[in-house]
Amino acid sequence: MPETAFPAGLFFTGTDTGVGKTTVAAAVACLLRQRGHEVAVRKPVATGGESRGGRLVSEDTIRLADAAGLGPDAWEQVTPWTFADPVAPPVAARRQGVGLSLEQLIDAVYGTVRPGEVLLVEGVGGLLCPLTENDTVADLAAALGLPLVVVARRSLGTLNHTLLTLEAARARRLPVAGVVVSETAPPDGPADATNVDELRRLGVPVLAVAPYRKGGTAEELARLLAEVDWGRLCRARVAPEEERALPCRR
Predict the structure, then answer these.
(1) Which of 1, 13, 202, 246 has its CA 20 to 30 A from that of 178?
(2) Distance CA 141, CA 179 (A)
C-alpha cells in the first residue's frame, strides 16, 4: 500500500493483559462515530475465543464490532484469527497447526479498510507480547505506523509498567499519542490515589483516566473521554522509520 493510502488511526496496546484495551478502544470508536467519522476496527489475532453460533469468536471482537456499528457478519473481518486457547498467539496457532506471519496480519488489517475510514487497531497483551513465531505486537505497530495509545491499569505497579512500555516504544521508535489510565477495579490505597499525578510529573502524556464502571457501556465511557481530541491524535500518523522522542525520562 503506498504511503499516501495509509489510513489515519491509532494502535491500542497495554502495559499488560486485562488492563482495559478493548474497553478504551471501543469507547474511542463510539466517540469518533458520534463525531461523524467512519471507523474501521481491527484486532487481527485473539485468543481465548468461545463458540457463538458455531463460530469461534472473542468477546473483545464482539465489543469492538458493536462499537463500530457492525454485526456478527463482520466478526471475521475484525479478527481474522481467533483461537480457543488463552495463551500467546504463536502458541495458540502452533497448537492448532496454523502458521501466522507479520505480512498476513498487515494484509488483514489493511485489506478491507475503505478510503476515509479511521483505523483503530488493538493488539494482544502488552507491546512485547509474541504475535507470530518471530514477531511481537511492537513489530506490527511499527509496520502499521499508527500512533500508540498505551492503556495502563491503575494499581500498584502502574509507574513501572507504564515507563517500561514507553521505554520499549522509544527503543523501537514507535510514536506514542498518549496514555489512558484504566481503573479495572475501584481505586483503593495511596498508589491508586497518586500514580496518575506521578506519571504526569515524570512527563508521561496522560490523556485521560477511564474510571471504574462495573457493567458500563462503551457509549458511557465515550462521554467521559470526550475532552480528548481523538480526531487530531488519529491524524498524527507518521512513517514507521521516523523517530519521535517520547516524554519519558531516562
Answers:
(1) 1
(2) 16
Q: What is the DSSP string of 167-193?
A: HHHHHTT--EEEEEEE-SS---SHHHH
* pTM value > 0.70: yes
Q: Which residues contact 20 (CB under 8 A, 6 or more apart)?
A: 14, 151, 153, 180, 182, 184, 210
Rg (CA), the chain: 17
Nearest to 76 by CA among 44, 100, 102: 44
Contact indicator for 127, 169 with CB cutoff of 8 Å: yes
Q: Are 152 and 195 within 8 A, CB to CB?
A: no
Pairing of strands 55-57, 206-210: unpaired
Query: Which amino acid belongs to residue 17?
Result: T
Neighbouring residues of 223: CB distance < 8 A, sequence distance ≥ 6: none
Q: Nearest 5°: CA angle at 96, between 93 and 102? A: 25
209 CB neighbour count, 10 Å cutoff: 17
Residues assigned a catalytic role: 43
Phi, psi of 92 (to 5 degrees): -60, -40
Taking alpha carbons only, the member of 176, 172, 101, 177 closest to residue 138 is 172
> Side chain identity at 15, as an amino acid letter?
T
